[in-house]
Write a structure and sequence with these properties.
By secondary structure, this protein is of the alpha/beta class. Helix content is about 40%, strand content about 25%. The longest helix has 19 residues, at about 65-85.
């Protein structure tokens, strides 16, 4: 099954604006509709008509997250009608803090939801600073430990506060670059920096 990982933002209502996110380098992320969450272009690009997918939503116990989650659900429902798909949402509820126990709990809850043969997608735009690290840990675990589990697309949404332009970036190559770096280190090649440089070129 396709599973999408995202986090409910903490922004107050007046900061959670609807915008068209311009796709950078990945045309599948092009979605000419104003939305409040970069998750929506990711869903639009990778969910097929008639398909059922699951969204794992990390939701901190914080005053704005209940309202923002409701807005997210409304916009997902609009996309379901538009695309003829079904998005089943599952909340990963966690306290609003950056304690290590909290991050490990998020990791544990995420990997408990990932199964063999899943295709994983992630929007790493929102959340506290450790959240993208925890999401990447979960993706790495699933990719290496689960049978035939693959990574579909990892995205990051950005708003340029000077121009007001919203952009969505495909970060998936960084995931595979991390995997390559790990394998090169395990091979104990003589000049790992040179090997990595050639790959980047």
């Amino acid at each position: 099954m396709k599973k999408f990982i995202t986090t409910v933002p903490f922004q107050p209502e007046n900061k959670l604006k609807k915008q068209v996110y311009k796709a950078m380098e990945n045309e599948k992320l092009e979605y000419n509709r104003e939305v409040s969450f970069p998750l929506l272009p990711l869903l639009h690009g990778y969910v097929m008509q008639g398909e059922e997918v699951e969204i794992l939503v990390i939701k901190h116990e914080q005053e704005n997250t209940d309202r923002n989650f409701q807005v997210m659900q409304e916009q997902i429902a609009e996309l379901e009608k538009e695309c003829g798909c079904k998005c089943r949402t599952k909340i990963i509820a966690v306290p609003y803090n950056d304690l290590i126990d909290t991050q490990l709990a998020i990791f544990g809850k995420l990997i408990n939801e990932i199964e063999d043969e899943d295709t994983l997608y992630a929007c790493m735009t929102y959340g506290t600073k450790p959240i993208p690290l925890v999401e990447m840990m979960a993706l790495n675990y699933a990719y290496r430990a689960k049978k035939d589990t693959s990574i579909g697309c990892i995205t990051y949404g950005q708003v340029d506060f000077q121009t007001g332009e919203a952009r969505i970036y495909d970060m998936t190559p960084l995931f595979y670059m991390d995997d390559i770096v790990t394998k090169i280190a395990e091979m104990k090649v003589k000049n790992p920096a040179e090997v990595i440089k050639k790959i980047l070129e």
